[in-house]
Amino acid sequence: MNILLVKVTLMPLVIGLITIISRKWGYKVGGLIASMPWIAGPILLFFILEQGKAFGIRSVPGILTGIISLISFCYCYAQLSKRFNWLVTILISYLVYVLVAVVFDFFRINLFAIYGITLTCVVLALYFFPVPADHQPQAKRLPFDMVIRMAVATLFVILITGLATILGPTWSGILTPFPIITSILAIFTHYLQGNSATITVLRGLVSGLFGFTTFLFLQAFLLREFSVGVSFLLALIVNLIINYIVSRMW
């Protein structure tokens, strides 16, 4: 199987699907669906196919560190979107993502500790998340926005997986949850619908990180005992159950 071909065909389909869901069922549902391992799952799979299963397992702690950075990105973008345009907001949020990743990578926290810290960060982020305003500005229209979203997502995935050999398992893992879908959703929602809609979609995404984090955490154990397909399937079922519970509680 040509892995590059999979990358350039799967990612456009994923981002297109999430965009359609967001438009049909709203920003909250769109954010929750976007938190599923649409990007991180395939990237981890590509790591395993290209670098071996041991590389994939060693990258899991780094991936969890990356999720903490992703939470920081979402919270930062939600806060800044109330005052700045999408370009300033995204650049500062990317900087926050990298800084948080560097700090946590310095301490080299073990798997169980980083899993607990990540879940705690999700809870704290949701507690302090900004509240969207009741007023929603009239939505703008952007020609070919679906095509642009698909192209950006594909380029991100190709770049991150292509750098895996140079970066090694730790930083490859940290960059796995890099806000690809999140950036696309945040930027386009911010520009087209305003900051209130952006806050809603990002809060939905953060709430879905309980399941996403658990999906990745389980790979460190399931991949040792089962095939890649079975490991991903079992963890995905757990991810879906957690997301359903969260959606009912929220």
UniProtKB/TrEMBL annotation:
**Domain of life here?**
Bacteria
Q: Can you tell me where the transmembrane regions are?
A: 6-22, 29-49, 55-77, 84-103, 109-129, 150-168, 174-192, 204-222, 228-246
Q: Does the keyword Transmembrane apply?
A: yes
Alphabetically ordered keywords of this record: Membrane, Transmembrane, Transmembrane helix
**From which residue to which does any coiled coil extend?**
none
Q: In the UniProt record, does the keyword Transmembrane helix occur?
A: yes
Its name, as the record gives it, is: Membrane protein (GlpM family)
